[in-house]
Specification:
45 residues, mainly beta, 3-stranded antiparallel beta sheet, 38% strand, globular
């Protein structure tokens, strides 16, 4: 079972997984404007 983190009243959700060498994150957002402070650099592609 995945643990899911929810923010902005459930409009932003994300989960992550980590191995010894990799960390993967998956997030979904409902349309809207959000301001999030994070220490991780996220890239697409």
């Amino acid at each position: 079972m995945l643990d899911v983190n929810e923010y902005f009243d459930g409009k932003v959700k994300w989960t992550d997984s980590e191995t010894e060498t990799l960390r993967a994150m998956l997030g979904v957002m409902a349309p809207g404007n959000y301001e999030v402070d994070t220490a991780y650099l996220c890239t697409h592609g």
